[in-house]
Design brief:
With 493 residues, this protein is of the alpha+beta class. It has 19 helices and 20 strands. It binds beta-L-fructofuranose. The site of beta-L-fructofuranose (LFR) has 12 residues, from helix 10.
Length: 493
């Protein structure tokens, strides 16, 4: 039998893509059909996503999917980054332009929210790590605006795209779990939290689980793309990190994962949330995965630091080639200066090389004096953060780790993989780089009855995708010393 074909739209912070997934027993092949830039736009009220350009990118990608398969697409799935949303008015029209989570309008808003719902209580309910851009803070910052007054429905970004593709309205649960309006234990919305913030509790649409049907393509979408009007849209794990964790090729339950792209999301898969004060203070989140699993992890600033350096260097006419920069970093002297990648000043877009130099100056460390030294500092600091977070997760969850799976675009970065293995003192399995798109395809394939439970999906990934192995090496004492130079994890919270 010929393999079943699925289209996965995966929107990331720097680019979006539509990939074709072919699935059959012992076969899982991805082909990228269309990649388009994701370029945020600054307006007078702040930083926004250009959602129409992204949607057009998805439509063009689906059109290519139709052409390259003679329209034989079994279903379509959409995932993206978490937290951000669009608001619809009572006619279903989008109100304004969705904000980018790196916009500064949420600065200081947490204090207002915590004066109504204290931080401990919010964590006991939602299990969500405190990030300044959590949906709850974004909504609170907009309270009383004309748009909030007119808003009837909140749709997270992938749900907004599904609404535009199908006309249906729903909230996918893995992504809903990143809003801080969702109960980590029961897996249901907590509209009472909106009520306590004087926001409309009925903004939250009905939940959908990965695998649920999300409708079929609207006639004008079918006409433009060349896919049939009956083409199903399947709910996937629409939070990109949840999709990536589906495609972690782990066999042994004692695994940890690092989903490494713009962010590094490092943690464990658990059966139930950890809602203790210690966990809250350490900055761990309990996001929902497929099949009721919990993604117990911490956000680490990730490749963003490097992406922003390269953006700054491009504007200054300096070299930005990644292989060259990483080769220079590999040759640079180790352990000269290390930073906490999660320092709040690194969150907003800006002159990242200068931010990092300022951090080193402030902490009395040598200031990186070349691009290679700076990239070394970033990669070593990320490896160190991976180690700190995984060790802390293992301790808080009382969960042994014997192997680290590094997936996502960052898994192509050999220096990062090697240093992560060295820093953690654990073997690292790198790949697949396209874990998110694979997870998206796999959940669609499962809905179509082609694969089974999580472990069989993971076995299919392990059997079909190219993986690289990095045994731990290097000098453990040097990593201990580097770690001792940073403030204890979570101290800044
Ligand atoms: C990764 C990610 C993270 C989320 C951040 C912001 O792409 O989805 O999981 O914390 O983006 O939404």
């Amino acid at each position: 039998a010929s393999p079943a074909l699925f289209a996965a739209a995966d929107l990331g912070a720097t680019s979006g893509r539509v990939v074709l997934g072919e699935v059959a027993p012992e076969r899982l092949v991805l082909t990228e059909l269309h990649r388009f830039a994701n370029t945020p736009v600054r307006l007078s009220d702040g930083l926004h996503w250009d959602v129409l350009a992204l949607f057009q990118g998805v439509l063009d990608g689906l059109r290519r999917a139709a052409r390259s398969t003679d329209g034989r697409i079994a279903s379509v799935g959409v995932d993206s980054w978490a937290v951000d949303y669009g608001l619809l008015d009572r006619d279903g029209a989008l109100l304004g332009h969705p904000f980018h989570y790196r916009d500064s309008r949420t600065d200081g808003v947490a204090d207002t929210v915590f004066s109504r719902i204290d931080a401990q209580e919010l964590y006991r309910i939602t299990g969500l790590q405190h990030l300044p851009f959590n949906t709850v803070f974004q909504l609170a910052s907009a309270a009383g605006t004309a748009q909030m007054d007119a808003a009837r429905t909140l749709l997270l970004v992938p749900d907004l795209f599904i609404h535009w593709l199908t006309g249906t309205v729903g909230a996918e649960e893995t992504n809903a779990s990143t809003t801080a309006l969702f109960d980590a234990r029961t897996g249901t919305w907590r509209p009472d939290l909106l009520d306590r913030l004087s926001l409309a509790p009925d903004l939250l649409p009905p939940l959908r689980a990965p695998g649920d049907s999300a409708g079929t393509l609207l006639p004008h979408v079918a006409a433009y793309t060349g896919l049939g009007t009956g083409t199903p849209v399947t709910t996937v794990a629409s939070h990109d990190t949840a999709s990536a964790v589906v495609a972690v090729p782990a066999a042994d339950p004692r695994f940890a994962y690092i989903s490494c792209g713009t962010w590094s999301l490092a943690g464990l898969e658990l059966n139930s949330p950890i809602l203790s004060e210690e966990s809250r203070k350490a900055g761990f989140t309990n996001e929902r995965g497929v099949d009721g699993t919990i993604r117990y992890l911490r956000n680490i600033m990730g490749m963003w630091l490097l992406e922003e350096c390269r953006r700054t260097w491009a504007a200054q006419g300096l070299p930005t080639g990644l292989p060259e920069l990483l080769a220079e970093a590999d040759r640079a002297r180790p352990f000269v200066s290390v930073v906490d990648p999660d320092a709040p000043e690194f969150l907003a877009p800006g002159d990242m090389p200068e931010q990092i130099r300022a951090y080193c100056r402030r902490t009395g460390q040598p200031v990186p004096d070349s691009q290679g030294a700076l990239v070394r500092c970033i990669v070593e600091s990320l490896a160190l953060a991976h180690r700190r977070v995984l060790r802390q997760a293992a301790r808080l969850a009382d969960h042994d780790i014997t192997q680290v799976h590094l997936v996502g675009g960052g898994s192509r970065n050999e220096l990062l993989c090697r240093l992560t293995a060295d820093a953690c003192g654990l073997p690292v399995v790198a790949g697949p780089a396209e874990a998110t798109a694979l997870g998206n395809v796999l959940v669609q394939a499962r809905a179509a009855g082609l694969v089974g439970d999580l472990s069989s999906m993971r076995r299919l990934v392990a059997d079909t995708q190219q993986l690289r192995h990095y045994p731990p090496g290097g000098d453990p004492a040097a990593w201990d010393a580097a770690e001792a130079r940073l403030a204890p994890a979570g101290e800044d919270l």
